[in-house]
Write a structure and sequence with these properties.
Chain lengths: ~775, ~450, ~160
């Protein structure tokens, strides 16, 4: 326990822990001290001087944000001395600040404007010319058009250095000529960059997509939950005329703190995209006909019934997006089962399903997100951490600064912008062996018998260093990322992680890929014993498919197999918010509502069940997916489809208080089922490494225009170690033809020293690579195009 | 290139010189310093295995006060270092001399570098530090090179490095050069600068003694402060104290510039009358009348000439005269100087050199400069003088570092003592002093 | 990007600081780079950032904060005159005016032949030697009366 200090602010007694500041003490009493540079999540700069307060015995006013609280201290935040100081600072801030509030985008939500009313004078005594600062162009998301408004609080700079982990903005020059800039015209590329807009206390950094589209007082604010990744960030969605105009974080210390990723923030542009599907449509010959819902659904019911009776229900496959709501997934599964088919799944990019029957429960993070910071040792395996889980990466980034040792085992050298204790990179095929090496070394370090799984492993230096770090901890967490979940040997990797956790007494779990990676299990949107999983459904094609929010050629682990299966099918129903390639192969297009237009539930990777309401009415004829499925159930005369609310659907699938009982990462019976395997021989074949770039990961973000202009949204390239490029005889920047499983793609070659030998990294989730095969499969050839 | 340099006059430091005694301009090398008795203090301390506390006690007895500007008692400062704390601890020498009017550290490093090295060695010993850095002003590159040479000599002779002179005392010392920023003279800006960042001062607390260079305990002293240490350790704190006055121990090098016959550095005992220093500097140039003196570097309040002529040169006496001894830079102005123009030039300096991080200084220095500039160029308004005083008031005591005060003090004192001249400018849109005023020059428009 | 000699000198600077504090050498590295290249281009700053493991914008902050770095090309000889009050009291303004007249340029300008750039400086810490002119950042010329300036220019013209 840290000692408590007693002090007195504005005549009221308060206790704060040792190390707290005067600002903390005032906050605890609910006393507002005006401030600009201070931000509770950033280091203290004490540069704006707005928070000057009077402190007993101090000869001059002290900045509340930076002055340590002391026992017996007496502070006045409103005294004559304090007020005089605050007013004069406000005057200084305003002398060079433009008088453009009426046209400023920040107008109405500007800290400077708010405080100027309380602390400023009516008339300026400044009779000189105001400073003019040139605008900057820093990319499609953050606008730096009006930099004369900047008050030099450096929040944005500190945000980059401390939270985003990459210093993209700096304050160049000095004195009055200081300016916030990027490095000579560079863009801001951080996946967290939009938060700078929130923390900028004035209208200097604004949202480029949002600029001038609405005034803050015209917007209604509605709560929602991010549909984009496993975190389940809490959102405030701002709406005008039934249109989503802007998305901001809703502060939740347990989940997203006060941040959101750029994906969460700017994806809303996709909601309003031209590609929205707004009418049910039926294929007629080579064309399409807009129809009423009734006709469309009757057609679907009739065709499904016919296929079932002619070919058997097992010829029907149902695939849900892992970003679909719990309710939608539950009803899709129920519908399929009602038809007699067990072929339902949402794990579209998974390749190895061999432990499906052995799971004790739904795989999840294994702990609360908020607990991540308290771990002293962490191993992350197979994760493009920064891009796949931007805010979980931030949790670890902050914890690493406080002494948490983070080790990373991965298939690429991407910098997570975390001060890593250890990092080991290997080819995907070598991942199980590397993890087995760590397991072996950890067992030895802890003096425990080496599990059979690791018997064949020969621990190298990297594995030993990681094991030593892990074994020295008392509160350890092991986390498996997307690359493990999508790995062809995912079951073995799971078993190894489980064994390692047992030896270390660690907790282990998954960094869930999508908004409902946990919810899909709870909704039982997975095949039981005799059903086909997502991969099998595509590799042994069905005659009919029900697609719920899925774009198979972009969302599936093997886009080539998926596309072929779709093209070959007799009947494909695409329930989707967007027009997509389904135009080419589907037979019915049903416009379903995205998360902003429906009620629903996401269960985040930490098992947090978050239900939300629609924030706008569905666009034109689009309808909430759960309602569409309910009506379809009725039309098919299936039992148990009489729901009035989405809550009824949710509670039937998994009542909120039952979630905890259904989360369990343990898999039983694997130890005996999987014996040690020899270390992989290096083969001449090239292995593919496939990340899913952050802005290709789901249908909404793919259509978010501004995000699509960022660096992260560049067309995928074929990246490889320079040695491999040299062997192929093609230089970086040249075009190459890549062949995989009979498909091919022409891509630009890039060199990356951080990649393992004999691997080619080609991103998934993009049309340019949709003709290729499995994400972690073998590459047939790469040659100059 | 230095063809214009007049021949070095060894007598220039004056008969009372202690630090600069025996300096000829050529005898800066190690062997010369040793011949003058150099490194004897360090040898004595190491041979006697003198307790660090005893070193500090001696320093306290000497009443040596920091020569960098603030005049903080050096012994007390050294005692703040957590000597027992494990890990790296640093001693930093502030040779970023850039306070207008100050040019003494340059001479010390140029003509007597080993004295600073020895002073730092003793400081490192007394504070339990592990290494030292000397931060040298950017514009005096030749001095940086000379200091590097002196370092090499001292290293070769075993005064720096592992087991100095066979003792168990080890330390390292390096030179770091600035590259043009007055603010790096401020001790925490200087630390930031050594860390490879912009020189932006840090808010205190934490103080450098707890959290300094690289977050480690650090002590920072001025070049001249370090240079005084060997003499004190060799001759005793009491002897040093007696060179000056109670609470104002020792001698001090005063940099005299402006309207005197022989600008230059003069080392005199603290408490020497200003009139005597003026005499040493050859008196007023051309025999003109003294108008004003800035006695402690440009940041110190200006003092009317007549008041200064009655004042002694020590911390307390100058404070009584309404100014500060500061860095000991004495800027002398005669009757031909237009005080509006002089202030304009100084205000421009602070405006130009403000680091820009804190609001009152970043915004206020430019505001003050522009108002003074307006008055000077005949566009002053009646309310300007009150406005100036008030803006200065609003900067004072509200900034992260003392540059804010340094910018405000001249404004306040110039307007206070020479209000008539400012008023005349406003009323008549031109100068009271007349054509001679051109000597202060101007700055490109901002 | 930089010569082996410059890199060696940078390495010497890096060695002055604790092993995990390479960034401390950035000022010296930029000064060396400027000496070799004439000024600090974007590419040079980017290179220094990479060499010292810094964010490029952090290097940019440093390069734009300290006045002796030149972010744009300057003439073969950069002449910097201190015109601060103590120097001005001893003829710095006259010296500057003389230089301007002789070179036919104003502050922050470069002669058409690209040989000289004139800059105004703040206190060099050499007020006793006023007027002072700093030549190419590293050479201090003292007592620069108009005659001394003529002599200096003649020498530099050679
Ligand atoms: C704006 C500013 C500039 C300063 N410049 C210098 C300087 O050039 N040299 C110096 O020794 N101290 C300078 N100081 C004072 C230092 O911050 C510090 O007090 C001093 O180096 C401590 O050494 P001392 O105790 O030996 O005087 C400056 C302070 C301020 C606020
Ligand atoms: S007072 Fe001026 S120089 Fe000092 S920290 Fe503030 S802005 Fe920087
Ligand atoms: S909030 Fe304290 S100085 Fe800015």
């Amino acid at each position: 326990m840290t000692a408590m200090l007693k002090l007195d602010v504005d005549g009221r007694a308060v206790e704060v822990p040792q190390g707290a500041t005067v600002m903390d003490a005032a906050t605890r009493l609910g006393i507002f001290v005006p401030h600009f540079c201070y931000h509770k999540k950033l280091s203290i700069a004490a540069n704006c001087r707005m928070c000057l307060v009077q402190v007993e015995k101090a000869p001059k006013p002290m900045p509340a944000c930076a002055t340590p609280a002391a026992e017996g201290m007496k502070v006045w935040t409103q005294s004559e001395q304090a007020k005089q100081a605050q007013n004069s600072v406000m005057e200084f801030l305003l002398i060079n600040h433009p008088l453009d509030c009426p046209i400023c985008d920040q107008g109405g939500e500007c800290q400077l404007q708010d405080l100027a009313v309380g602390y400023g004078k009516g008339q300026s005594r400044y009779a000189e010319e105001k400073r003019v600062v040139l605008h900057k162009s820093v990319g499609p998301l953050v606008s730096m058009e009006e930099m004369s408004r900047c008050i030099h609080c450096t929040r944005c700079v500190r945000f980059g250095q401390e939270i985003a982990g990459v210093m993209e903005l700096g304050m160049m020059g000095r004195g009055e000529h200081s300016e916030i800039v990027t490095f000579v015209g560079r863009s801001v590329d951080s996946e967290l960059s939009g938060n700078m807009i929130d923390i900028c206390p004035v209208g200097a950094l604004t949202s480029k997509p949002f600029r001038y589209s609405a005034r803050t007082w015209e917007l209604s604010r509605r709560k929602s939950v991010s549909p984009h990744d496993g975190l389940g960030a809490n959102l405030v969605v701002q709406v005008k005329h039934n249109r989503v105009m802007r998305v901001l974080p809703l502060e939740n210390e347990q989940v997203n703190e006060c941040w959101i990723s750029d994906k969460d923030r700017f994806s809303y542009e996709g909601l309003n995209s031209e590609e929205r599907l707004t009418k049910p449509m039926l294929r007629e010959g080579s064309g399409w006909r807009e129809v009423e819902w009734q006709e469309a659904l009757e057609h679907v019911a009739k065709r499904l019934g016919a296929i079932r009776s002619r070919h058997g229900a097992e010829q029907i496959g149902a695939l849900a997006s892992p970003h679909a709501t719990l309710e939608e997934m539950a009803l899709l599964a129920k519908l399929a089962r009602g038809l007699g088919s067990e072929n339902v799944d949402f794990r579209l990019r998974q390749a190895d399903f061999s432990i499906d029957a052995k799971r004790a429960g739904a795989p999840w993070l294994g702990m609360k997100i908020a607990e991540l910071g308290a771990l002293d040792r962490v191993l992350v395996a197979g994760s493009f951490l920064r891009k796949d889980h931007p805010l979980i990466a931030n949790r670890l980034r902050q914890a690493a600064k406080r002494g948490q040792q983070v080790s990373l085992i991965h298939v690429a050298g991407d910098d997570p912008l975390i001060a890593l204790a250890n990092k080991a990179v290997c080819a995907p095929a070598a991942l199980p062996d590397l993890l087995a090496q760590v397991l072996r070394a950890a067992a030895e370090a802890r003096g425990k018998p080496v599990p059979a799984l690791a018997a064949g492993a020969n621990a190298g230096a990297a594995a030993k260093a990681i094991a030593a770090s892990l074994a020295s901890g008392t509160n350890t967490g092991l986390f498996l990322g997307n690359a493990v979940q999508q790995h062809p040997r995912a079951a073995r990797l799971h078993a190894l992680a489980q064994a390692l956790a047992d030896i270390l007494g660690a907790r282990f779990g998954y960094l869930g890929e999508a908004a409902n990676s946990v919810g899909g299990y709870l909704a039982r949107c997975t095949p039981a014993e005799r059903g086909l999983n997502a991969r099998a459904m595509l590799e042994s094609p069905r005659r009919a498919y029900l697609l719920l929010g899925v774009e198979p050629e972009l969302d599936c682990g093997n886009p080539r197999a998926a596309t072929n299966a779709m093209r070959a099918a007799e009947f494909v129903v695409a329930m989707s918010a967007f027009r997509s390639r389904a135009i080419d192969y589907a037979h019915v297009l049903l416009p379903t509502a995205p998360y902003t237009e429906t009620s629903g539930t996401f269960v985040s990777t930490e098992g947090r069940m978050q239900s939300f309401n629609g924030v706008v009415r569905p666009l034109e004829d689009a309808r909430p997916g759960w309602k569409v499925l309910r009506v379809l159930g009725n039309l098919l005369e299936l039992a148990g489809f009489d729901y009035d609310t989405s809550e009824q659907v949710r509670d039937e699938a998994c009542a909120p208080d039952a979630v905890a009982t259904r989360l369990d990462n343990r898999v039983t019976g694997v130890e005996s089922g999987l014996e040690a395997e020899p270390a992989p021989q290096s083969s001449a074949a090239m292995q593919r490494i496939a990340d899913v770039p952050i802005y290709f990961a789901d249908p909404i973000v793919r259509r978010a225009a501004s995000l699509q202009q960022t660096r992260d949204a560049r067309t995928p390239m074929a990246s490889m170690h320079p040695a491999l490029a040299a062997r192929i005889g093609v230089a970086a920047g040249a075009k190459v033809r890549v062949r995989q499983e009979g498909g091919e793609a022409v891509l630009e070659l890039a060199c990356d020293e951080g990649l393992p030998a004999d691997c080619v990294r080609i991103a998934a989730g993009h049309p340019a690579t949709a003709a290729l095969g499995a994400m972690y499969g073998e590459i047939t050839s790469v040659e100059r195009a | 290139m230095n063809s214009a340099h007049p021949p070095f006059d060894p007598g220039i430091y004056g008969p009372e010189a202690v630090l600069m005694k025996g300096i000829t301009g050529e005898n800066w090398r190690l062997k010369d310093y040793e011949a003058r008795g150099g490194y004897a203090a360090l040898k004595k301390i190491l041979a006697e295995k003198m307790a660090p506390d005893a070193v500090i006690a001696e320093l306290k007895r000497s009443a040596l006060r920091g020569r960098g500007g603030a005049g903080f008692p050096t012994g007390l400062k050294w005692s703040f270092m957590p000597r027992q704390a494990p890990g790296a601890k640093y001693m930093v020498c502030n040779s970023d001399e850039g306070e207008p009017g100050t040019f003494k550290d340059r001479d010390i490093l140029r003509y007597n570098p080993h004295q600073v090295i020895e002073g730092m060695a003793i400081g490192v010993y007394a504070t339990g530090s592990t290494a030292g850095y000397n931060y040298i002003h950017g514009e005096i590159w030749d001095i940086y090179e000379r200091f590097e040479e002196a370092l090499a000599e001292a290293r070769a002779a075993g005064y720096i490095g592992r087991n100095v002179l066979g003792s168990d005392f080890s330390w390292e010392l390096y030179a770091h050069h600035g590259w043009g920023a007055y603010i790096c003279g401020e001790e925490t800006a200087l630390l930031e600068s050594i860390e490879g960042k912009k020189g932006q001062p840090r808010f205190r607390p934490p103080f450098p003694a707890g959290y300094g260079l690289y977050g480690r305990p650090t002590t920072i002293n001025n070049t001249e402060t370090f240079a005084a240490v060997p003499w004190i350790m060799l001759n005793g704190g009491q002897a040093y104290l007696e060179l000056g006055r109670p609470n104002n121990g020792g001698t001090k090098i005063f940099s005299v510039s402006g309207h005197v016959e022989r600008p230059g550095n003069y080392e005199v005992r603290l408490g020497t009358p200003f009139a005597k220093l003026l005499e040493m500097a050859g008196g007023m140039r051309g025999g003109r009348r003294i108008k004003a003196v800035i006695p402690g570097g440009s940041s110190a309040p200006v003092v009317p000439g007549q008041v200064m002529m009655q004042t002694d040169l020590d911390y307390d006496a100058i404070a009584k005269a309404g100014s500060m001894l500061g860095s000991g830079a004495v800027i002398v102005m005669d009757e031909t100087v237009c005080m509006v123009r002089a202030l304009e030039r100084l205000s421009y300096f602070y405006f130009e050199e403000s680091c820009g991080q804190c609001t009152p200084c970043r915004e206020g220095t430019g505001w003050m400069y522009r108002v003074v500039h307006r008055i000077e160029s005949g566009r002053g308004r009646q309310e300007d003088l009150d406005l100036l005083a008030n803006v200065a008031e609003n900067i004072m005591g509200r900034t992260i570092c003392a540059l804010g005060d340094a910018a405000a003090l001249p404004v306040r004192s110039f307007v206070k003592h020479f209000r008539d001249e400012f008023q005349y400018h406003i009323d008549h849109k031109h100068c009271l002093v007349g054509a001679h005023a051109a000597v202060v020059g101007n700055k490109a428009a901002v | 990007m930089l010569s082996g000699e410059s890199l060696k000198k940078i390495d010497t600077e890096v060695a002055k600081y604790p092993a995990d504090q390479k960034q401390s050498a950035v000022m010296a590295a930029l000064a060396l780079a400027q000496e070799e290249k004439g000024h600090l281009s974007t590419e040079v700053m980017d290179f220094v950032a990479g060499y010292l493991g810094m964010a490029p914008v952090a290097v940019y902050e440093v390069a734009s904060f300290y006045t002796m770095y030149d972010l744009a090309p300057v003439g073969g000889h950069k002449l910097c005159v201190c015109t601060n009050l103590p120097c001005a009291l001893s003829g710095a303004v006259e010296a500057a005016e003389h230089l301007k007249k002789k070179l036919g340029i104003d502050w922050n300008e470069t002669t058409p032949d690209g040989r000289f750039t004139l800059k105004q400086g703040e206190c060099f810490g050499a007020c006793g030697d006023a007027p002072v002119v700093l030549v190419n950042n590293k050479k201090m010329a003292s007592f620069m009366t108009p005659e001394a300036i003529d002599k200096m220019l003649a020498e530099l013209q050679k």
